[in-house]
Amino acid sequence: xxxxVESGGGLVQPGGSLxxxxxxxxxxxxxxxxxxxxxxxxxxxxxxxxLTSGSxxxxxxxxxxxxxxxxxxxxxxxxxxxNSLKPEDTAVYxxxxxxxxxxxxxxxxxxxxxxxxxxx
Length: 120
What we know:
Shape: elongated
Mean pLDDT: 96
Distance between the termini: 40 Å
Strand content: over 45%
Oligomer: single chain
């Protein structure tokens, strides 16, 4: 069973920065993609950023130029650096990892979520 543990959320003022971490219980080389999603109250969960095993990235239009995604393979950890935060970035942020088994079954794993609140 794969576990993803997020950390780094909290309360920050508009314009501030936070770095979220997602530590995986197994080598992140086993995932073909890892990423971050978020869900604000009353809204659907949405993609924030993804990073593939081939180092390709994808970002939501709303965070382009402000957020970056990176990984530390030795620590089995993926990071989301969030700069120039806005109140509309307030949400629960979830780490996601995707894996394909040898029998070609796709697996989706989720962390428990970490709250990010941007407010003055």
